[in-house]
Amino acid sequence: MKAHDGPCHCKCFRNYDPVCGTDGQTYMNECFLQCRDIVMTSHHACPCKCPLTEDRVCGVDGLTYINQCVLECAGVSLRQRGTCECLLMCNNVPRPVCGSDAITYRNDCYRNCAGVGLSFRGDCSLLQRGRKRRTPTRQGNQQ
What we know:
143 residues, alpha+beta, Wheat Germ Agglutinin (Isolectin 2), domain 1, 2 domains, 4 helices, 11 strands, globular, Serine protease inhibitor dipetalogastin-like, Kazal_dom_sf
């Protein structure tokens, strides 16, 4: 069964596989999140209830969060107030890479914007499962 996701006109399955976005909201699944053009912070429901007041901050993970409560709720440290400028050039195509800081970035552009080296291509959770050996390398800016 398919459903429309509000005014954005995306067609998403209504399976419940919650994800948390940089806006601090829990979405039914990744399709609904992407339909709103929001970046995912975790493959789980958002752990905190934060106000939706907009006072954007940039996290050390290179993502812009709607406010500091949402940033802290995601367990991310503050890099700077305001948006992460470099990320305005990044596309939202999900090609996960594991940074040398053991944080999974949406793609190489996000990792580069955070100023972090590349450990390997793929989700950092593979480290915890013992499938990848962590060998950090530094790469130039790529998108």
